[in-house]
Amino acid sequence: MPMRAEEIESLLRESFPQARITITDLAGDGNHYAAEVIDESFRGLNRVQQQRAVYAALRGRMDGPNGELHALALTTKAPD
User: Fold this and answer.
1) Cβ 55 vs Cβ 16: under 8 Å
2) CATH number of 5-77
3) Angle formed at CA 70 by CA 1 and CA 46, multiple of 5 degrees
4) CA angle centred on 53, ends 15 and 65, rounded to 5°
5) Residue ranges of the domains in the chain?
6) Using CB atoms within 10 A as the burial measure, which of 12, 15, 31, 66 is most buried?
7) How far apart are CA 4 and CA 7, in angstroms?
8) What does pTM read for this prediction?
9) Looking at 36-45, 46-55, 56-65, which range is the least confident one?
10) Cα–Cα separations (whole angstroms), residue 15 to 19, 27, 28, 55
């Protein structure tokens, strides 16, 4: 079952309440998104650590072939 961009943002907002979050539906199918998450909590973390934090915030929605979210292109960073 596809996810709406609002659902993704809501999940991310729970873990990153002060973040700047932009969600883009890449294919119009509710399965392929890009997300940009800019949050102070990423400062000092490498890119892999930042992205793991984002995946953890999605609480299993991308897990395996039965996940609700098929593809998510991530951009993560601390604010400038």
Assistant:
1) no
2) 3.30.300.90
3) 140
4) 105
5) 5-77
6) 12
7) 5
8) 0.89
9) 56-65
10) 9, 26, 26, 11
